[in-house]
Amino acid sequence: MSLTGTPFLYTAVVLTVVALILPLVLWSRLRGPKALRVAARALMLLFAQGTAVTLVFVMVNNQNNLYDNWADLLGTGNHVQQAADLGKDGTGNISLKRLPKVRQHFSPAEGPGMRAAGGVEVTQLKGQVSGVNAEVYVWLPPQYKEPAYRHHKFPVVEVLPGYPGSAKAWFGSLHANAQLSPLMRSGRVAPFILVAPRTNLLAGVDTGCANITGTVNADTWLSVDVPRMVMNNFRAEPAPSGWAVAGYSAGAQCAVKLAVAHPDRYRAAVGMSGYNDPIGERNSLAAASPALRAANNPYLLLKEKKTPPPIALYISGESGDGYQAGTALASVAKAPTTVHVVFLPRSDGGHTMALWRPQVTTVFRWLTLEMGKNRPHAKAGSTTPHGRSNDGSTRAELASGTSSRAGAARKR
């Protein structure tokens, strides 16, 4: 039975109801030795508590898309077939143009939000370069199948969850497809293809979207294998002009790092409630050593670049949870790099889906403008969609880009 399926939820509800009724019906009717009656009553109480906890977990998991399946929950999943040394650029000097095209079979995805706005498709991808074998979800904009667009290529946004988090989260919890479909039809948001690859590749740890020889090549999986597959199977614009990446929490750190590290693969990145130093996620493999932390810290990468990359970054967050990471990036950004930082007050919510869900339409309007998909590219700040102002807030220029570990270590 699927962990996130409706049958499991209904089973949990029925068992919880039964567990509540049993003591009411049987408590005073039990017969036999006193020790046996005490044991039976204790078991009924434990059963009631266990089913109640299970029901709460199932509801929270379905709402936030934390664990996709039983393997993720139990820590038995492993999606890495090999992790060769791929060098600094993550390709192992492989000529990507000479690799055979990736042809994939897609099927309708199951789960909450997967059938909204035309439905989400899923495929199992074996990464030719990264050695990762995992699922990738794809949602096509409403214009994609219209005859008038049959020769049109579409821009792409890779959407990344936090840790722990399911690749389905942007559809099941943030309702990105349902929110964006009417805006795309009306022309207020460009018709982006949304691509959601699995990021939880190893049991019990966050990869930090890093390449770690012998362990995982998560960076290459996300920035090489997944984009190649999408461009081989759909009418997708080429990189970097047609590609962006967006994430929340640990996914925000990953999104910004990918864009800063690979301006030849991405034009823009969105980070909601993220951090710069990988140590912001205590289970991150990218925080295992000072060298890995530095190599996967977008603040340090941006600061040390001799040639500023032609990328645009949108960073939103509350004080102590993403905002300082954004101001740190803005403090070292030089043209043509642009960094738009949005301050969110505590009243907007905490480190939850309730904070990120309302931002979906805003960040995609920003992406539409920044990537020049509706009108000529505008200077940063001149036509940015309305968002919370950061005027009057204190700039924090921290090397890590986080105000404190306590604030940055929150995860979803």
Any overview of this molecule?
- With 412 residues, the protein is an alpha/beta fold.
- 34% of the residues lie in helices and 13% in strands.
- The strands form two sheets. It has a nine-stranded mixed beta sheet with strand order 1-2-3-5-4-8-9-10-11, with helices on both faces.
- Mean pLDDT is 86; it is low at 375-412.
Short description:
With 412 residues, this protein is of the alpha/beta class. The protein has 13 helices and 11 strands.
Q: How many beta-strand runs?
A: 11
Using only CA atoms, what is the Rg?
23 Å
- What share of the residues lie within helices? 25-40%
Q: What would the average pLDDT be, to the nearest integer?
A: 86
Terminal residue distance: 24 Å
Topology:
Elements: H1 6-26, H2 34-64, H3 70-74, E1 107-108, E2 121-126, E3 133-139, E4 156-160, H4 169-172, H5 176-186, E5 193-197, E6 211-212, E7 216-217, H6 218-233, E8 243-248, H7 250-261, E9 268-272, H8 290-295, H9 298-304, E10 312-317, H10 323-332, E11 338-343, H11 353-356, H12 360-370, H13 405-408
Parallel strand pairs: 4-5, 4-8, 8-9, 9-10, 10-11
Antiparallel strand pairs: 1-2, 2-3, 3-5, 6-7
Helix pairs in contact: 1-2, 7-9, 9-10
